[in-house]
Automatic annotation (TrEMBL):
NCBIfam families: GGDEF, sensory_box. It comes from the Bacteria. Residues 308-562 form the EAL domain. Residues 165-301 form the GGDEF domain. The lineage of its organism: Bacteria, Thermotogati, Synergistota, Synergistia, Synergistales. This is Diguanylate cyclase/phosphodiesterase with PAS/PAC sensor(S). SUPFAM superfamilies: EAL domain-like, Nucleotide cyclase, PYP-like sensor domain (PAS domain). Residues 9-66 form the PAS domain.
Length: 566
């Protein structure tokens, strides 16, 4: 085609690249993604920065066999192109049909490149059939999709208003379903979703509906007249689906759900409010770890949600205003004769003097991403304070908690290396405490990361040992220096002989696996007695020796442990 008007070729290509509604990828001869356009991100869910440098196999749905892909590449290599329908997988796990065209392109440098252009058929098919989304189905489960859900919810609310009926919206999320996909593969994960979809389909009656509204989320619309208790009946049926393991491909999978419920007209006046409120109830279940449980929306959840939004805004301002500060809790050898180090604990005091509990702002900081800059500041401030103590003659080890968000959402190695370089704090005195729950995913990634951190001279310790998911094999092969026993075992020491036996077994196991063992949450001399005073190598952290201290108070505490000069 010849253009009969003056236009800059580069500008034209850039405009088409950015504005075209089809997804486009450019790969080199080895299949490495070199560039993607905006539509690619909109369709797949992968941002350009997440896709570039990787292989298009990140979109592979496992719904085609090797023969399919072998024929595709025979066509590309023989004819220079391939075109057809293919099923791919979005970042959130949803599979979808697309029309894909791949063309081989010769580069000016003699290299070979491949350009792929694709259209999302999942919405187009419904429109082509004249459905305007009416009756659109989720491709994997055969359930209705979120568009049909919204239409049915709207119709049910209109009917409910006319006939003075209630309408329940039940939303649920499969807890940690990513673990199923990661541990057993997407094919097993898809079979689980289809199985759950079939079970859910058997629950609803003709005037009710269930839809798959996300990769691991489902929703029910349940009309209810004044005399029935149909909503609770459906809730019980949902819970029964997950009351026993799901058997798929010779695997026994224990899956739990978080369920939230909103009821019209008591909780909401329209569909948008119902979805919001049911979501608030569901997230309350998740936050409070009520696995396999459900929550009915109430006004307190709305107030809590608004408080959390306000708290997030205040937290961001607090970072700028310097409202966060650190206290340090001493870690003392059994018997109280010597301090070996401290743990840095973050605190937040608002301008009006209110002190916000870490149990409230830390989870929110992790959810919102604020934990990444906050975690960097904590590490740098702790190291800076350690240097000040060192100059004053107090050479103390420093333990700093590391959030999973910092591990998976930030460059933790660079953060640690930078803090050590900028402050001059000795690397061999720094210990990073990692909770066991961090080890549920990507163990290979963690091994590589902490091997690099260990090479700096920094030590790594398991926090809350005995309460999480780390396997003994993983602990045995991980470069841990220390283990911190969770406070729950300290409480068990005084509850019953059986509980004490378990707690002492955990302590003994930790002593055999790590060079340094810290027992936290020790508050009384009675608890010290039950731990065993003969275990002189144990390090004790708790109120029995000291509460967390402001940095200027710590030297006096250290001096108080030193024997008097005769």
């Amino acid at each position: 085609m010849i253009l009969n008007f003056s236009v800059d070729r580069g500008s034209l290509v850039e405009a088409v690249w950015d504005e075209i509604t089809e997804g486009v990828t450019l790969t080199d001869s080895s299949g490495t993604i070199l560039a993607v356009n905006r539509a690619f991100s909109a369709i797949t869910g992968y941002e350009a920065s997440e896709a570039m440098g990787r292989n298009p196999r990140i979109l592979k749905s496992q719904h085609h066999d090797d023969f399919f892909y072998r024929n595709m590449w025979l066509s590309i290599k023989g004819e220079g192109r391939w075109e057809g329908e293919i099923w791919n997988r979005r970042k959130d796990g949803e599979i979808y049909p697309e029309w894909l065209s791949i063309k081989r392109l010769p580069g000016s440098d003699g290299s070979i490149y491949y350009m792929a252009v694709f259209s999302d058929l999942s919405r187009m098919k419904s429109m082509k059939e004249g459905k305007s989304f009416h009756g659109a189905k989720d491709a994997l489960t055969g359930l209705s999709d979120r568009f049909v859900l919204m239409e049915r919810l709207s119709a049910s609310l209109a009917r409910g208003e006319r006939q003075s009926e209630s309408v329940g919206l039940i939303v649920l999320n499969l807890n940690r379903f990513k673990d199923v996909n990661d541990g057993f593969g997407y094919l097993v994960g898809d079979k689980v979703l289809r199985h759950i979809g079939d079970r859910f389909r058997s629950i609803v009656k003709d005037h009710e509906m269930v839809a798959r509204v996300g990769s691991d989320e489902f929703a029910f619309v349940i009309p209810q007249n004044g005399k029935s208790d149909r909503i609770r009946t459906v809730l019980r049926s949902i819970c029964e689906v997950f009351s026993s393991p799901i058997s798929i491909s010779e695997a026994e999978l224990n899956i739990s759900v978080s369920v939230g419920v909103s009821v019209f007209p008591d909780d909401a006046a329209n569909g948008d409010e119902m979805i919001r409120n049911a979501g608030l109830a569901m997230h309350r279940v998740k936050r409070e770890a009520l696995l396999g449980g459900y929550a009915l929306y109430n006004d307190e959840m709305d107030r809590d949600a608004r408080r959390r939004v306000a708290l997030e805004q205040e937290m961001r301002l607090a970072m700028e205003r310097g409202e966060f500060f650190l206290q340090y809790q001493p870690q003392v050898l059994m018997g109280g004769s010597e301090i070996v180090g401290v743990e840095a604990l973050v605190r937040w005091r608002k301008p009006d003097g209110e002190v916000v509990s870490p149990g409230e702002f830390i989870p929110l900081a992790e959810e919102t991403g604020i934990m990444i800059p906050l975690g960097r500041w904590i590490l740098e401030e702790a190291c800076r304070q350690g240097v000040l103590w060192n100059r004053a003659g107090f050479e103390l080890k420093m333990s700093v908690n590391v959030s999973p968000v910092q591990i998976y959402g930030d460059d933790l190695y660079e953060t640690v290396a930078s803090a050590l370089e900028e402050t001059g704090f000795p690397a061999e005195r720094l210990t990073l405490e990692i909770t066991e729950n961090t080890f549920r995913d990507e163990k290979g990634l963690l091994l590589e990361l902490f091997d690099r951190i260990k090479a700096l001279g920094v030590k790594v310790a398991i926090d809350d040992f005995g309460t999480g998911y780390a396997s003994f094999d993983f602990i045995r092969n991980f470069p841990f220096y220390g283990i911190k026993i969770d406070r729950s075992f300290v409480l068990d020491l005084e509850r019953s002989p059986r509980s004490a036996a378990v707690a002492n077994s955990v302590i003994a196991m930790a002593r055999n696996m790590a060079r340094a063992v810290v027992v936290e949450g020790v508050e009384t001399k009675s608890q010290l007695f039950h731990i065993g005073g003969e275990k002189a190598d144990l390090i004790i952290q708790g109120f029995v020796y000291s509460r967390p201290l402001n940095p200027e108070k710590l030297p006096d505490f250290v001096e108080s442990l030193r024997p008097p000069v005769s």
